[in-house]
Design brief:
Elements lengths: L27 E6 L13 E2 L2 E2 H11 L4 E6 L2 H6 L6 E4 L7 H12 L6 E4 L9 H14 L3 E7 L3 H5 L5 E4 L5 E5 L7 H6 L10 E10 H9 L4 H6 L4 H5 L5 E4 L11 H18 L1
Parallel strand pairs: 1-4, 1-6, 4-5, 7-11
Antiparallel strand pairs: 2-3, 6-10, 7-10, 8-9, 8-10
Helix pairs in contact: 3-7
Length: 280
């Protein structure tokens, strides 16, 4: 089998940090939205302040300055909910294993240029900060990497030890070295004495938003799942195992938790009501 190699781009130093002073290139936001969510059925259409959640997410993308916003879905009810919103809809296959695969099909249907920058924004992020969305696009352009993502500092030991909080280790030039559900790097001496307190140093939590050059998105979706990806159940490890770069920038603003359960939805509805009251 022929091995797919991500196109190499001249490497420029990309120190992990906020790049908000860098001009933002034109970018596209694509939102994968699957109706058949296990924990929250019909999630994209659940209402927050009378507005479907997927439309809230699309509005955040538009506010971030995206030149196009696409929703990639497999359900006509989601397309109907977005009618007249100015958001493009791609009706994709119901058989995709991941949102990334769905976005790769969306890219082919939309005919995006291979060098275009596309941000993959999850459909359960109704309060995604607009500066974080734009930061991803800038990081793809500034770093020369075909893939970019965000991170934030970890300040408590509970998060460091939580396998649901994915950690990322970066090189000095801001590229990801590894992602793990384990506490990496492992603070051997500190944890030998006490695992109840946060050790000294800096640990980073990964935020699951990605930016791609379209050609790299397509190549990534064509790669088979890697051994490390299967062990950790982390799709991004497929790229690292193949020797590809992933540039990492610090999130300029906190990313609120996504909406995965009924309890999360109630919290989001309460947050939105408070936001409306404060702006009313």
């Amino acid at each position: 089998m022929q091995r797919l190699i991500a196109p190499r781009v001249h490497r420029r130093r990309s120190v992990v940090g906020d790049n908000s002073s860098v001009d933002c290139p034109p970018f596209i936001v694509a939102i994968p939205a699957r109706h058949a969510s296990t924990r929250l059925p019909g999630k994209p259409l659940r209402l927050i302040g009378g507005i479907p959640m997927v439309l809230h997410v699309a509005q955040r993308a538009l506010a971030a300055g995206a030149r196009e916003v696409w929703v990639a879905t497999d359900d006509g009810r989601i397309a109907d909910a977005l009618a007249g919103s100015g958001v493009h809809v791609a009706m994709t296959s119901p058989d995709h294993a991941s949102g990334t695969d769905r976005l790769a099909e969306c890219a082919r249907m939309a005919g995006w240029a291979e060098d275009a920058v596309v941000v993959n924004l999850q459909g359960d992020e109704p309060f995604a900060p607009v500066d974080g969305i734009a930061c991803i696009a800038r990081t793809v352009a500034e770093s020369g990497a075909g893939i970019a993502t965000l991170a934030t500092s970890i300040s408590d030991v509970e998060t460091l030890l939580d396998p649901n909080a994915v950690k990322v280790v970066c090189s000095d030039d801001g590229d990801a070295l590894y992602f793990s559900r384990a506490p990496v790097p492992w603070p051997r001496d500190a944890f030998a004495h006490d695992r109840r307190s946060m050790p000294e140093g800096r640990w980073l939590r990964h935020i699951g938003i990605y930016g791609y050059r379209v050609r790299v998105l397509q190549a990534f979706a064509a790669l088979p799942a890697g051994r490390l990806e299967r062990i950790e159940a982390l799709e991004q490890l497929r790229a690292l195992e193949a020797g590809w770069r992933i540039a990492v920038a610090m999130a300029p603003s906190p990313f609120p938790p996504g909406v995965d359960t009924e309890a999360d939805l109630l919290r989001a509805q309460h947050t939105y009501a408070e936001m409306q009251a404060n702006h009313g």
